[in-house]
Structures are given as C-alpha cells and as structure tokens.
Amino acid sequence: MATAKKAAKKSAAKKSPAKKTAAKKSAAKKSPAKKSSSGRKYSPAAGKQVKTEMHEMKKGKLKSGRSGKKVTSRKQAIAIGLSEARKKGAKVPAKKS
After folding, report:
1. pTM for the whole structure
2. How many domains does the chain divide into?
3. pLDDT tens per residue, range 18-71
4. Which domain range does residue 53 map to?
5. Is the C-alpha dihedral spanning 88, 92, 93, 97 positive or negative?
C-alpha cells in the first residue's frame, strides 16, 4: 500500500505543474504587450539612408569607419545606414547596446 501511495503522489506532483504552466500561458495571452501609438519605428528618411548604403555595399564602395575596410556583410551595411540616419536626425530607435 505504501508504494501505491508514493506512486499516486508522484503522478499527482507531475500533473499539478503542468496545470500551473497552462494557466500562466493563458494569462500571458490575455494581457497584450504595450504598443506605441506613434506609428512607425523607423522614418522613411532612415529607410532611404539604409537603401543608399546597401547600394554602396553592392557596388563595393561602402567602407567601414576607422579601418576603411570594404563592408561585405548585409547586417553591417544596415547598421551603418541606421547610424548615419541617426546622425542626420531621422527617427530611428536608440541602439540596444
């Protein structure tokens, strides 16, 4: 009988955490994330700046900052475009790090 009680406790213990996580998931779905009402994250001017940097990269004319080496990475070209758009005062979110 003691082994039957232990087995019942183990199965009950396994079932109860699953119910808690399901409850947490449903609660998370009910509360939507806050969205900013300002509309766009990036201004059209920022998009144009990134576009020009991408064209420069594809032509092989885009150089990185201090070293002056040729940029070959798409992500790096986008980062350079956004950085320059920030300097010009276009609406671009702040750097994350």
Report:
1. 0.58
2. 1
3. 555 555 555 556 656 666 566 889 999 999 999 999 999 999 999 998 999 999
4. 44-88
5. negative
